[in-house]
Every structure is written in C-alpha cells, then in structure tokens.
Amino acid sequence: MLNICNFFINKVTKIILLSSLFISFSFSSTSIVNLIEKNKLYDNTYWAKLLHYKNGKSEVDSNNFFISKNGKTNLKEELLETIKSLENGTKNTLCRFPLRVKWLKEKLPSLSSKIKEYECKDLDLYLKEINAKYATLIFPTSHINSPASMYGHTFLRLSGDEKTPLLGNAVNYAAQTEETNGLIFAYKGLFGGYEGKYSILPYYKKIKEYNNLEQRDIWEYKLDLNQEEVEKIALHSYELKDSYSFYYFFLENCSYNLLWLLEIARSDLELVNNFYLKAAPLDTIKILKKYDLIKQSEYRYSKMTKMKHILRNEISNKKYIKSFIKENKKLPNSLTLKDKAAYLDLKIEYTQYLRSKNKLDKKDYLKKYLKLLKERSNISIVSDYKIKKASNPLYSHDSARFSLSYNSDKTYEISIKPVYSNIYDISYGYLDGAYIDFFDLNLKKDDNKVFIDKFKLLDISSLSKRDELFKPLSWGIEISYERFKSQEDYLKIKPSFGITYGNKDYFLYLLGQSKLYNKLGDNLFSLGSKVGFVVNKFKDIKIGLSYEYDKYYKDFENRNFEVFSTYKIDDNLSFNLKYINDNLTKQRDVSSLSLFYYF
How far is CA 292 from CA 18, 166, 368, 478, in A? Predict the structure, then answer.
C-alpha cells in the first residue's frame, strides 16, 4: 500500500513540475511576444536592414535567407518565426544567422535563457580565420577592353592586421556566370538574368585576379569603422554567403549590394536609399566620402602600369624592345647599365604577364623567369621606379550628366544621360580612352518646336593605346535613334575599328567605321574613317579635334570637322565649347556653348 502511495505521489509531483515548466515557458514566450508587440520590434529599421528590405520587400531573392515562408515580404512574421525556431532549436537559426541572434538578444534580454543552445563549429572556425578588425573598400578601376568592366568594380577587405593586408579576406558580390560574350552578358545583366552572390575568399587571390590577370590598377579606401562595426560586417557576410539576389547591371550590382553591409555595420547610415535607378561603382564610393567613412586612400598599380612606366620613362634606348622582349635575343654590350637593368625588369614583368595569360606553360615559364632573375642579379643597380599615382576617382565627376547648350544657329539643346563618361568629359579619375554611355537623350528646340534630336541606347568606345610592346585594337559601337538627312528619324548602328597611339597627356586615334541607318525599310549605308586627337595634359582642361569622312552607297558623302574644349569649374560642373563644320546636306558651321552638370 505504501509503495502504491509513493508511486502516486511521484507521478503527481512530476506532472506538477512539468505543468509548472510548461506554464513558465508559455508565460515567458507570451511575455516576449507581448514585448515585441508593445515595442513594434518588427518595424525597427535595423531589423529591416538585416533582411535587406526596401520598398516593402527584401532584395534577397533566395528562400534560404528567410525562416518564414513569407519572410521576403513580411517583417513581423519573419521575426516571430525566427524567435520560435531559436526556442525550438530548429532550422539551424542559431548558427545560420549569428547577427540576427545577437541583435535579438540585445533587444529581448529574456530571450537568451529560452534559446536552445548547440555548437556552431563552422561559424566559430569562420570567425577565427577571418579575424575581422579593419575594413577597406577596394576599387579595381576600369578595364578598357571589356564592356562589362568599364565601370570598375568594388568589394570589401576585412583584415586583422593593417600591416599585412594581403593576409586579409575579400567580401565580394558578383553575378554568377562564365559568359564571355560581352553583349550577352550586358543583356542578361540589364534584365536580372544572373544570380548575384556574396563570396568570401583570401584577398591575395582577388589581387591576383584584378592586379595581375586583368591588369587593373586598384584603389584601397580604408574605412573609419571600429572593430565592433567590422565584426558586424563579418557576421552578416556569413549570413549571406549561401544566398543570392538577382543581379541587375545598373542598380542591384556589386557596388550597391556592398552598401547593405556598411549599413549593417553602422545603424545610422542611410546609403542604399541614395540609389534608385543606377549605382555606378564610382558613385557608391563617393557616397562614403559624403558620410566621412573614408579615412585614407592607397594606390596599388598593376603589372601593366609598371611595364608601361618602364617602357616610357626608364629605357632611354628603345631600339631593342622587340628583339629582346619578344624574340629573346641578347642585349648589346653598348647599352648603359641603367638601360640593361630596365630592360631586364621589363622582361621579368612581361614573362609573368605571359604566364598569367596562359601564353607560357609552367615549365617554360620557370626556366625563363629564373634565367632572367639570375641575369638581373649581376647588375648592381637597384630598381626604384617612381611610378606616379593615377588620379584618385574619389575626386572625379559623378557618373550622370545634365547639359544645357546654346548653338550659333539659334537653337537650344538639353541632354541627360544616367551613365557614364564620354570623350567630352574631363577624364580626371576615369580611365582615359574608355568611354561608355547608356540612354543618352538629347532634346533640341528651334523656332518652331521641341523634338528628340538623338537618343543613344548604347555608345561604347575603347581607345586603347598601342606601344612598342602591346598592340591592342581600338573599337567602338553605337546604337542610337537620331534625326538625319532632311530631319527624318532613323535607327543608327555604327561599328568602328582602328588604332590609338599616345600617353597620359594626349592620344591620337584612327578608325575605320561604317554607318547603317534604317527607317521603315529605307536603308542608308556608308563606309568611312575618322581621325581624332585629344589632349589631357591639363587637370582642368580637355581639348580635342576630329575629322571624319563617310561615303554613302546612294552616291552622296559627308565630311565633318569638330574641335572642342571642356573646362572644369569644380568636380561636378564644367563648360564645353564646340565648333562643328558639316556638309551633309549643305555647308554648315555651328558653334555651341554648353554647361555640364554631373550628379
């Protein structure tokens, strides 16, 4: 009988204890929900930033970034489901979203005791390896012969020691594609045809990719963020590493998506909302200057820049460039020691360049490279090349332009383009000879009416300079709508190919070109040429002239001579003076004065 009583008492005790725990847990969960409702925590701006919310929905498109099935469009449901999964220990939320958990613990102190804890080995290893204390924005500049790279690129470097930056890690956002056709890449990039993903990899690998393989100079902008803020970037990068957003070339691109990370680092920043239609990498860097986030700029020149510097400035007798560098003939003893050293330095760099382009196999490369190093070690002259810094993009004009013009034939013009830079713009901070414009609209007013004079869908020019060692081809493509010949409206396609010579102060280009005009089956086709000369010697003044001749198959021809000068008033304001002599339908001389405003 006593045993039965003890058994009954133990059962009742367990039931009471379990009931008490259930009631306590339910009460505590209810109190957390009540606190959330009372403070409307789901409307907190930082919670919205953690989920990349803009205009009522998240800009992250993959489902694995959300705990709730409606998390992309419902902040409240996502928050409640996140808390529920933490309490139940489901969906790996504790390890998968460490910054969300950290923030929720700060806002809901009682939550910590309710979370079902477990080990997060991958997260712990990641934080140990990345050791994030300092953040730097990295800007590989434009790549002149690649339309997809003419805007440049940005990514972040997180490091534990500023003295050893190459040991840091790069946080990068990019379209996931192996597409090599520039036109297909541009089309899909414009309309969200690629998934964009964040990745985290060693910084030295990105240096190899941009500095050595693509031969792009790099600007490093050290950010004024404390260690706690940098750690937030590291945690949020971990949250994003397996997710994707659809990549859009103009807005939701590499640079725009990095701004989310910086807003996460410092909650009072409002960076993303500065961009609605387009986010050129250059503009996203400048917005950081506006918020005093950049504390120092560093320039890292590419191997191409170093080779061109040696070629132009360090070798006095350039007679043996081809025979020594490309044909592997010996240098004559008559050369000065300084020239011999420069020749060898140049060939060492060039041999590494060939290897990076897979034009030398590893065995052949090592043999030639070690032989060159041995030869160079026999010359006591120390190479100390003073390679001049490129102009800092931070102080260039913005990428969009509005212009107002008055012409000597008593007409007025207004034009606007969202991006980027053309031959009339001051080149400071931009890659000289690389011009790309999208959707450039030009309106004209005469005595009678206002009309669309020209609308450029796309206009790309790559005027890459040739020298004794490198022989790139210059090219261009223009697709536009314009008024042509008796003021009729035509679709125009204009490809061009040629060569360019020059240096940082000036360049001369010679192009063969064709123009195809079409209007409802009325076709005009021409073959012609264009020669131009541009002077960039002065920081605030640009001068250019050009002459083009086109022979049309309908037995008429066109000659056009143009000279222009652009004067910079400040970073985002310039005057442009232009004179055009044209004989398309009749001899025409027109001068124009334009005001360029960049934004």
Answer: 57, 25, 48, 39
Please state the pTM of the whole predicted model: 0.88
Helices 227-240, 254-265: crossing angle, 10 deg rounding: 130
Distances (CA, A) of 542 to 402, 426, 428, 506: 18, 6, 10, 10
E-only strand ranges, 539-582 = 541-552, 556-570, 573-582
DSSP code per residue over 278-315: ---HHHHHHHHHHTT-EEEEEEE--HHHHHHHIIIII-
Tell me the per-residue pLDDT of 358-397, one tens digit each, with 9 for 90 and over. Answer: 999 999 999 999 999 999 999 999 988 999 999 999 999 9
Lowest mean pLDDT among 31-35, 214-218, 259-263, 362-366: 31-35
* CA-based nearest residue to 215, from 308, 121, 90, 319: 308
Identify whether the C-beta of residue 288 lies closer than 8 Å to the C-beta of residue 262: yes
* Of the candidates 474, 531, 535, the residue with the CA atom closest to the CA atom of residue 504: 535
Instruction: Supply φ then ψ for residue 88, to 5 degrees.
Output: -90, -10
Cβ pair 83, 101 in contact under 8 A = no
Count how many residues are written for the chain.
599
